[in-house]
Amino acid sequence: MIKAPTLSEYIRDALFKRFGLAAVIAIAAVYLAYQGWTEWDRIRARPGVPELIALWNTQPIPRADPGRYGVVVADIEGDVGGEYSKLILTRLREFAGIEALALHRSIAVPDSDAQEEAAHLEAVKYLRQTGGTILIWGSLLRVGGEAQPQLRLSTDSPGPARAHQYSIERPLSVSTVFWQRLATNLYLQLYGEYTNLQARDSKGKLAADELPTFIRRTSSLLSAADPKFGWDGEILAKTQIILGDALRLQGAQGNDRGSIELALLQYRLAAIAYSKAHDADWARLQNKRGGAQMDLADVSGEAADLDAAISTYRNTLALGEGDPAEREVWLTRASLGMALIRKSENERDPRVAQEAITEFRAALKEPRPWYSGVTDRGYMLSGLGRALTIVGEDAAPSTRLREAIEVLVQAANDLPVERAPRMYATTQNHLGTALFELGNRESDRDLLRRAVEAYENAMKYPDRSPLAELDRAYDMLNLGAAYSALGRLEQRPELIRQAVSVETEALQELKRLGAPRQVAIAENNIGLAMRELGRLEHNPSLIKAR
User: Fold this and answer.
1) Whole-number pLDDT of residue 5
2) Residue 516 has pLDDT above 90, yes or no
3) Residue 422 near residue 460, CB atoms below 8 Å
């Protein structure tokens, strides 16, 4: 028996025959929409539906611009309609030095220490996902019908977030305390970031884009810094100093005069907050200025830049002993001594080196309660030894050279290689020069062997910056000269060949680095070594080779 179709089946079949499958699907969709609309309360209560709705409505996590410091604002717990979150974002966006991002997630405000730690870890998770610097989150407390936000500022650093309650007034505005706290947290973050950059740079592990990115972020921050956003006085000056330090490091790495000049500009701006003389912060800043001026002299080769550094150091020393800035004054003596050494090397004037000796000896004269006993002392002794060598090179008696060797050996023993590899390498190079000068003067094989050993030790700790590449080429010239002198004294052709090999490598580097005066020295040294090799091997062709 054939069952008669129902009305709905009849209509479906008729539509399918007339309009096809598309019409049937469209009508079904309309029917389901109608059912969903009329039965929504019952449908949304079914298992799994609330979760699907939340997932559908969840907005993606934003990503911060790596070229700016990002401040991320999470949804404030209990802030129905997001009034306070929107207020904070609006006010943050008035500060163009940062990027303000909305994170449509909330973090439950903790009731215990254990929950505090868990909440902070959740905040750090969101910070890492967004690439932001600071995450603002919290809740609304309602007292007597009035809402008071309790906000937390979390950073990607160890330890729980600290709760700080900020007043939000009518008309809605963010308090001064909030801006000051935000500025302090941003400063602490960039300070920690730069400290890590310095540590990686000292180990030769700094990626090429890390320093420029840090400079760009910090420059953007300072370009819009304003007292109304909490940026004034000490916090502003400290940030300018850090930017100056970063620019100075970039200038030294890239042989970039422009970066060093920008560093000096930042130091001058920071000096406004440290206008008082006889202040440790002011003295420390002056030392940084002097160091940047010395870097500038290295890049430019101009005597005026070196003289400016010497003048800066002398002005700092005018603070005098017994001042609160005594340690900075003490360290200034070392920096002044190094600048005077550089001047004496440039001008071949042993009288300037004698001034450096006076400064180093004054600094080493008596111990201080804050004296490190390791790096500070080694640095001082290394400078003193180099100054003694310069004076000894032009003095007939060998007393100064012997004293220089004794001081430099002590400096090398004091300096921890793992903590100060560059300073240790410089000291070994100074020691090699003193040993070479005295060994050559007295035709002493042992001294020349020790000079070779010292130069080889210096080359075990390379620096990757352009200026350091030039220094390394000079070190190779020194090592070649020591090999040549020892080979000539001991009548050993193999040492002369080593000298030619090392100095040929140095010659190629000097040509690449564009140092014409040193190229001429290298070519002359190679020619002399080839003639000596021809004499030892009775080979006229080598004598005429150069």
Assistant:
1) 60
2) no
3) no
